[in-house]
Amino acid sequence: MVWDFMKRILISRLLVGLVACGWLACLSGCDQSSKQEPASTAEQDAAKVSDVPLRIWVISPVVDAERMRRQWLADSNQPVEIQQVSDEVLHGGELPACDVIIYPARHLGDAVRRGIVTRLPNNMLAEETSGASDETSADSGLLPVEQAQVRYAGEDYGLPLGCSLPILIASNAMNAGDQRLSWPEILDQLELETPAPREIDLNTIDMGALVDRFLAIVGTLSDRNPSYGLLFEMQTMQARLKESEFLRATNILQKLSLQAGGLQAVLGSHSSAWTWACQNEVPAVVIADPLLLNAEAKGLTSGQLLAVQSDVRIPGWNTGAGLIACLSSNCRQTSQAIRFIRWIREANTRASLAQTMPGIDPSIPPAGADQLSWLARQKLQNVLKNDTVPREPCLPAADAYRKALGESLIRILSGEQTAEESLAQAERDWNAITKASEFNQRNEYENSLGLAL
What we know:
disordered N terminus, D-Maltodextrin-Binding Protein, domain 2, single chain, 2 domains, six-stranded mixed β-sheet, alpha+beta, 453 residues, 19 helices
């Protein structure tokens, strides 16, 4: 009996052991089955596609929404809705009902401070910048001017689609040579009318282009370090519009307007000014931006590029008219929104959209390498590599500052006020805008210059 009892105990323990081993093996098998290989990138992207359309808002005078939609759907199954909106959405009280917002870079301060956009994932801009040393590659990454354009208060908020850098355009009748010319050497070649009061039709004015031209001239004259601001005194946040470089710039702008047909070239759009200079049969010079041209102006092959001889350190002026693509703070599909922002930055996408949308750098010649607009963009590549290019104003209320300056320039060009009188008024207007702002504009000015830590 003792033996039978001991045998039953041994059998029971053996059965318990077998059951325990089987249970552990089962658990082990469950653990192994749960550690599957991660899905491929294509599978992950496919999983993120939804029936809810990705909402894209675009602030631009021309938006080819259908071209953008078709090109996106050629690369993605994610439905998309593209809407052209006014820049008033950046100043209103409600957050935009979109996932991605595309707008001129000068509005970045307003967009950040009003909570309209959110910063990009930490590694996103670094990945774009990693290839920036390859100048000839269409996917060469971000250059210093492009990086600065999407950065505010030390944070990155988007990817740039183009940088606005106005340049001097001359008719073929100008004796430009291969050397840089000083402003007196340029102006001496022009036939100028006698200054006199002039009536200006306000309906024919492109205020943004007028201000762009003026700031581009200031950039050739100022000897201040642009890293610490050119438009305001850093410590007091008082405007500097009465300083000598601004007075000299108004004198040059006035002389350019005294060319035959020059007033409208100075007051008109970048496209009309570009066309006027390129097709002129007498010596003619104007300032225009190759990024902001219509299709007709982009296609011109006549005309020539001028470079101003200057001892100052400023190689150009980023007016902030180039577009940037940002994540909306109301984004409801983050993965697809980021994918869209990467996609619209790609060379092939920009080359297609730039044909009809100003503010986008085509990255490759849209029709031919002999177009003057493409030659201008190539010439500006060295400017894009320079980290001292100013991009002012980019703080909140940038449009209000620019509007007050534009109105001042109109008073000067019409003969209503002298340059001294009008710039003094503009300076008072700027200081009033600063004082009335809901934000601490001194801090915001530092943020816009990249000085905030």
